[in-house]
Design the sequence.
């Protein structure tokens, strides 16, 4: 039994650390600013990080395969601009939304194929993906386009009340992330695809020798990343009710930071999406503490996220060394 | 005959060959479709015209490309150059600002042609900030053993936050005219920025070609282990490359903020990492590191801006070019990569076998 | 000729890489239910032969016959489909996923579209039971010892690939004695089931413990295939190391001249120098005008010793003194300044910088010694490189050729030139003649003696015993990462072999 507990701790150390840190940070915030103790503030985290959670989930898979996707923010901007442009033209959201998702998937497949078959490093391909997507967004519109579509307005403004918490609510798009999370937990743990993703991240050569479909899986992972980015883009444009190529600047680092803070190793093979959820929540909590403080300016978030990423990369390598011994 | 073929081949294999061909193609395009492109006039004793614009606009990129060349040659990459430009520009403009701190002052004072800090100190602080950023990147990569992409990504995003911190979130405007000189002045009819590029280029060239640093950088990029076994500190070489890249970014920040008379921490130097990587890969340096040519990278930067200015003359907006550039970078990387070359060679070989005589 | 019992016949296998003939007309056969040892030093061609068999490298010439049918192995996956499975020293499984997944992933049972974990675990348990192993298959593979991981790898190859041939590549190098015995039990069991097993190892004890036949390779050529029972150990080592005194009488003469110099000064002195997991504390000294040979089988600690003295690794016990001064900081640069040079064993990964020219490769260490700012002029670079190109007889049209385009022997000479240019006092040569042709070998051996004549101290590491005997004034024999004995140059080769084999 003691052996099992030890194994459990070793296997889940990073995740437990992340959860502990989230709890600590949140309680510290609650002590500092009693207003943060309201349940609504907690649910606001889900409202504010709705699109970040979605891209981070996609990013988790990509990073587990030892890759990286720097294009996410560009894809969000492109999706917002493209969907706004289409909606302004009067095209129905029923067509626009699936179209955007298809675009995201196609974009991911393209990047994944270049990475897999032409052997270009993921960060180069996806960095170019970032610029390409932003560039396309600017070609669609050079200024911000407002969305007036009734469906989008309905989705943006309808509150969903949380059971057991009086007056606490979220918006409809905030639910997409948690739903996606459930799907992805299933994918990661109960399908060959999910297990292959982990195997590839640990040792691609081995996975190949084990006869696993490495190429197909890797491309699928990037396609899923593209899908998540497009989905996040839709959520993003719903929450802002507009589209523009300059949206979501630097969100790729926010997503990478959330994934890393959530215990996923940049060296691949280790990590899970539950950790990512808490990584995103930590990110959101820091932002809300800064907001409650009021005197600290917004740029501290960027610096803070950068510093936190660095610290967690340090913690990861410590854990890794421990495990090796 | 026999002597001619190797000569042709030598020319073709020179690093400058393909970049110059590309540049020539754009010039030919301009000559046909936009004849006004080459017009150079003289106004108030200065040369002006599209070509001068190309050089003046390309100056910051050429500088950044110099630093990026060295970093990529070691097998790394620096994604933070844009942020470094922002930080150093913020540093310079804040020090000039007559209203340091939160004093309440009138617009007259704010807009006066004075500086809070002597100009030489401003320039030094500007350069110091950039060098420090580069040094930090270098430390993370060489001593912290963090992959270059991640290490510099952190500064790429956090750096703009730092720049905003420096300017306290304000968009800085500089009314102090001597500062304008770096980006707008002329010496003997040519923009000051061109002279700065020439000086930094010579400095870089002397540093890497007249000392052993260049050789060591190439050696590290090709085979870090052998290099280490030969008694070379590959860590210090990397540290140097990143620090120098920071230095180049700082000068680019100085010129850019001088050119626009101010600094907007969110937008200054935006997408420079893309263009700098682009310039370097056009210059024939492989992303995996190794052999590099400073001059070829500078020509790469020129190509980018000649192309951009050409597009401007056709009325294409700057942001719309972004997507095209991104695709081009990938294509160029693919063309130069060992992997594609091998595949191309194979195809050529197979064809040769099919058509060639069988022994 | 073909034995009907053979499941595998490889005939006339030849494979060359740029600059190296890795395999030359090698025959190999494997019978059903046989454990067949494949023996040879580094670079003998063992791994190339395995790569050919498993489809990693296509052979240039030769045929492979499996179960009487000619086959062409296209890829590692293809070899698995054919029933040829390999368990590598570095296990080719994924340590982050569970044991059960490692055995069955790709063939896992499904239920309602999702993985049936319960059944998966039961199946995995059963597969391991066949090998008499009982562990918690739900734990990540990385939580278990290398021995268990190896068993899991074997289980996968039996379960998924239904292997007919099992290749075990240095499986015991990181196992302790109990684990090894456990592995051997499994091997015996598989043997009983008619599986042919190719066993690659450098532990000769184990060869005699478990194998039926032995095939010895040397320098890419087949030495012979023997019945284990009828090949005494000393003879085996002789076959591995090649005891055929043919060429190079003049080398011996040059050595005799060196013997007469008696005014040697002590240069390097190691006392109890060691590093845990690398080499056990060793006493050792080296003087001017002297070549000290290091003899020992693969894995005896030869390279580890060189790396310690050169400062690639930092020792955790003992002391190293050079010219009476104790070394406190260990790094290649430090050694360079102390006049120590190392030509590393792995020429490609640790020696040459392939995309630089010969000239640049030659001046690299010299330049490292001069530092960043005292740059040799191009003219001086040409002078230095030209000098050593001539001195060592490097065959090249110009010093501006890329090193990667040279042959192995010439690459080795370039590395030698790199270090000679720094005018070192102590020269450590780790396998300087591996994979190069006989002529170049003789030249390098002669050069070594000439250098000693000039007053340099040389540590000469080689897996070829003759070479060590011919060139060394003293010979240190390593066994099991320990110094086993030290002999003067008039020692009989047979004595050394016995020491290496652990027979006193």
Sequence:
């Amino acid at each position: 039994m003691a052996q099992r507990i030890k194994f459990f701790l070793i296997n889940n150390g990073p995740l437990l650390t992340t959860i502990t840190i989230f709890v600590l940070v949140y309680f510290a915030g609650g002590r500092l600013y009693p207003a943060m103790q309201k349940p609504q503030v907690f649910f606001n985290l889900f409202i504010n990080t709705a699109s970040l959670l979605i891209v981070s989930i996609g990013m988790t898979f990509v990073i587990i395969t030892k890759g990286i996707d720097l294009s996410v923010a560009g894809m969000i901007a492109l999706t917002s601009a493209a969907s706004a442009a289409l909606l302004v033209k009067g095209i129905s959201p029923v067509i626009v939304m699936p179209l955007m998702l298809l675009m995201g998937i196609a974009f991911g497949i393209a990047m994944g194929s270049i990475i897999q078959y032409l052997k270009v490093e993921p960060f180069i391909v996806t960095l170019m993906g970032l610029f390409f997507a932003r560039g396309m967004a600017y070609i669609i519109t050079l200024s911000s386009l407002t969305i007036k579509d009734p469906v989008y307005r309905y989705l943006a403004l309808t509150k969903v009340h949380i059971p057991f918490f009086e007056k606490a609510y979220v918006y409809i798009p905030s639910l997409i992330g948690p739903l996606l999370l459930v799907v992805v937990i299933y994918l990661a743990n109960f399908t060959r695809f999910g297990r292959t993703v982990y195997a590839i991240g640990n040792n691609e050569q081995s996975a190949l020798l084990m006869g696993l479909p490495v190429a197909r899986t890797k491309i699928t992972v990037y396609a899923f990343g593209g899908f998540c980015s497009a989905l996040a883009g839709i959520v993003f444009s719903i929450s802002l009710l507009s589209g523009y190529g300059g949206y979501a600047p630097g969100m790729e680092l926010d997503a990478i930071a959330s994934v890393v803070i959530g215990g996923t190793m940049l060296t691949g093979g280790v990590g899970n999406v539950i950790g990512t959820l808490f990584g995103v929540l930590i990110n959101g909590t820091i932002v809300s503490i800064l907001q409650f403080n009021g005197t600290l300016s917004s740029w501290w978030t960027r610096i803070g996220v950068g510093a936190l990423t660095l610290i967690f990369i340090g913690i990861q390598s410590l854990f890794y060394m421990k495990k090796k011994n | 005959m026999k002597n001619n073929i190797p000569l042709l081949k030598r020319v073709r294999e020179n690093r400058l060959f393909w970049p110059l061909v590309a540049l020539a193609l754009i010039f030919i395009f301009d000559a046909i479709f936009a004849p006004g492109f080459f017009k150079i006039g003289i106004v108030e004793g200065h040369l002006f015209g599209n070509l001068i614009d190309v050089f003046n606009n390309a100056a910051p990129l050429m500088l950044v490309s110099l630093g990026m060349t060295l970093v990529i040659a070691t097998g790394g990459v620096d994604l933070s150059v844009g942020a470094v430009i922002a930080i150093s520009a913020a540093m310079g403009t804040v020090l000039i600002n007559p209203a340091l701190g939160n004093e309440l002052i009138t617009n007259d004072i704010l807009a006066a042609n004075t500086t809070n800090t002597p100009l030489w100190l401003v320039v030094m602080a500007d350069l110091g900030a950039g060098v420090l950023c580069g040094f930090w990147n270098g430390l993370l990569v060489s001593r912290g053993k963090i992959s270059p992409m991640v290490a510099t990504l952190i500064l790429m995003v956090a750096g703009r936050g730092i720049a905003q911190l420096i300017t306290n979130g304000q968009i800085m405007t500089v009314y102090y005219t001597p500062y304008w000189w770096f980006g707008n002045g002329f010496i003997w009819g040519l923009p000051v920025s061109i002279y700065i590029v020439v000086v930094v280029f010579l400095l870089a060239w002397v540093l890497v070609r007249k000392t052993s640093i260049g050789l060591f950088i190439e050696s590290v990029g090709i085979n870090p282990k052998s290099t280490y076994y030969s008694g070379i500190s590959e860590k210090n070489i990397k540290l140097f490359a990143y620090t120098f890249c920071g230095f180049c970014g700082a000068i680019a920040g100085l010129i850019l903020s001088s050119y626009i008379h101010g600094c907007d921490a969110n937008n200054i130097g935006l997408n420079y990492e893309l263009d700098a990587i682009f310039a370097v890969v056009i210059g024939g340096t492989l992303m995996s590191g190794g052999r590099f040519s400073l001059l070829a990278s500078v020509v790469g930067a020129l190509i980018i801006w000649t192309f951009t200015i050409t597009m401007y003359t056709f009325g294409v907006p700057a942001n719309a070019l972004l997507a095209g550039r991104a695709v081009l970078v990938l294509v160029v990387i693919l063309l130069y990569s060992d992997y594609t070359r091998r595949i191309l060679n194979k195809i050529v070989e197979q064809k040769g076998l099919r058509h060639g005589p069988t022994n | 000729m073909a034995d009907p019992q053979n499941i595998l016949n490889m005939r006339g296998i030849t494979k060359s890489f740029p600059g190296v003939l890795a395999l030359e007309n090698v025959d190999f056969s494997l019978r059903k239910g046989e454990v067949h040892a494949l023996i040879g030093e580094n670079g003998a061609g063992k791994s190339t032969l395995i790569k050919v068999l498993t489809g990693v490298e296509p052979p240039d010439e030769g045929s492979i016959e499996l179960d009487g049918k000619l086959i062409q192995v296209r890829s590692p996956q293809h070899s698995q489909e054919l029933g040829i499975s390999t368990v590598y020293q570095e296990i080719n499984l994924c340590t982050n996923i569970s044991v059960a997944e490692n055995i069955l992933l790709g063939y896992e049972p499904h239920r309602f579209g999702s993985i049936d974990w319960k059944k998966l675990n039961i199946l995995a348990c059963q597969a391991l039971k066949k090998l008499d192993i009982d562990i918690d298959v739900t734990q990540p593979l990385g939580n278990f010892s290398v021995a268990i991981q190896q068993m899991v790898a074997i289980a996968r190859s039996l379960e998924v690939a239904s292997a007919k041939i099992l290749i075990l590549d240095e499986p015991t190098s990181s196992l302790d004695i109990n684990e090894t015995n456990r592995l051997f039990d499994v091997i015996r069991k598989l043997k009983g089931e008619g599986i042919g097993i190719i066993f690659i190892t450098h532990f000769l004890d184990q060869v005699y413990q478990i194998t039926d036949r032995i095939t010895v390779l040397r320098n890419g050529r087949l030495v012979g295939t023997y019945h284990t029972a009828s090949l005494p150990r000393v003879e085996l080592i002789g076959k591995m190391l090649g005891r055929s005194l043919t060429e190079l009488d003049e080398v011996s003469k040059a050595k005799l001249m060196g013997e007469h110099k008696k005014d040697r000064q002590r240069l390097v002195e190691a006392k109890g120098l060691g590093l845990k997991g690398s080499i056990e504390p060793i006493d050792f000294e080296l003087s001017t005008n002297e070549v000290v040979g290091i003899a020992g089988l693969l894995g005896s600690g030869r390279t580890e010793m060189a790396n310690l003295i050169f400062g690639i690794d930092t020792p955790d016990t003992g002391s190293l003194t050079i010219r009476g001064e104790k070394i406190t900081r260990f790094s290649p640069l430090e050694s360079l300044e102390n006049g120590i040079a190392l030509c590393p064993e792995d020429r490609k990964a640790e020696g040459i910088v392939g995309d630089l020219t010969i000239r640049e490769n030659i001046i690299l260490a010299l330049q490292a010694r001069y530092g960043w700012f005292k740059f040799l002029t191009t003219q001086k670079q040409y002078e230095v490189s030209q000098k050593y190109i001539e001195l060592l007889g490097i065959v090249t049209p110009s010093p501006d050729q890329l090193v990667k385009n040279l042959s192995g022997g010439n690459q080795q000479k370039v590395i030698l030139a790199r270090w000679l240019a720094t005018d070192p006092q102590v020269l450590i040569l780790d396998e300087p003649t591996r994979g190069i042709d006989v002529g170049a070998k003789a030249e390098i051996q002669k050069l070594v003696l000439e250098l000693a004549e000039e007053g340099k101290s040389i540590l000469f590491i080689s897996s070829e015993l003759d070479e060590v005997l011919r060139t060394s004034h003293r010979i240190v024999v390593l066994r099991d990462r320990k110094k086993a004995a030290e002999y003067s140059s008039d020692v009989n080769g047979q004595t050394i072999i016995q020491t290496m084999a652990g027979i006193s």
